[in-house]
Amino acid sequence: MSAQHLPVDWDKARTLAYEAGRAAAGPAETVPLAGADGRTLAEPLVTLTDLPAFPTSSIDGWAVRGPAPWRPTGRVLAGGTAEPLTGDGTCVEIATGAMVPAGTEALIRVEESTRDSDGRVNGTPRPLPEWRLPGDEAHQGEELLPAGTPVDPAVLGMAATCGYDTIVVRPLPRAALLVFGDELLTSGPPGAGRVRDSLSPLVPAWLRRYGATVDPSAVRGPVQDTLEAHVAAIRSALEVADVVCTTGGTMNGPVDHLHPALAELGAEYVMNTVAVRPGFPMLLARVPGPAGRPRFLAGLPGNPQSAVIALISLVGPLLAGLHGRDLPVLPRVELTAPVPGRGGFTHLALAALDQDGRKATPVGHVGSAMLRGLAGSHGFVVVRPDTQAAAGELVPFLPLPLYAGERP
Fold first, then answer.
1. What pTM was computed for the model?
2. Which fold has domain 332-399?
3. What is the pLDDT of residues 200-224, one digit of tens each?
4. Of 3, 81, 222, 255, which has fewest CB within 10 angstroms of its CB?
């Protein structure tokens, strides 16, 4: 197991994590629409027919042929097959969404029509047609959405509109969490030299927001601070997860057993350290898995904010790759206050966005062991190595993971 001794540039680390996940993405599978939410299209979504598939009324009213007045000859409702209008001066009552009969020359809105004493219909059609023609939305065989598109309710509705009962998607990555540290409490307030474990509730929730499945049984800890316990816990987690996150033990202290455990498991580093503050040190390792597909271990630091930075810097891109999605491009925001640099390291500074999501204000209480600032933030502004950021400057912004549809 070869280690990289120099920290990897933060931008490069995101790319390496993404590429590692993309190369290990699982095979496509076909699932019913009802089970596809949160998945990723493994194939383009292509129309099976023209959309709409037949001329469709946009109004409730009358389908007419020839000059007024028109003699009603029937009715066509949504879901029915319309008989052709064959004679001038005839019409049929038509409902919104119904098939427009062949031979129709215009549609008259019911509220803009009248009936004479003989029951014949009068009215003036509007200048623009009141029905949709086949192919107005899409033509048969047209690609609507590319492979790699996240499946959300709108995508499901589009697939159903096209006539799909199943779609081809990527599998959901499975994740697990192992918390290291004998000093951690799993309940109650901290004290007497022990601190409360805050990462067991935090990390799985954000893993799910990144689209991973996390079974409650796959969250374990604190794991005993011995090499044997670490190896056994990691091996067990790798049996049920594609990505195992660990917290703590990323240094080389007297009770830091992560590196020796990875060596014993035959892992190789994707990266061993990343040049970012806070968050140093973090790591990502590739572990041999079944059927030639590797599994991954992401070593997050034990300090809570540093662990979050490692999670969104490495695990977020890794999961995007495993999903078969694109690596998200970081938006740019305007700073409302200056942010210092951190020498040769990328500085990720917690910030809150304004209501429009365009301006970012740095927050307080941002020590690597603190979560108070994190709880009031939307993400991190990115200050590149050997630079500093001034108020009014546009800088990249690394958002915290949100559920689909949520806004800052």
1. 0.86
2. Beta-clip (2.40.340)
3. 889 999 999 999 999 999 999 889 8
4. 81
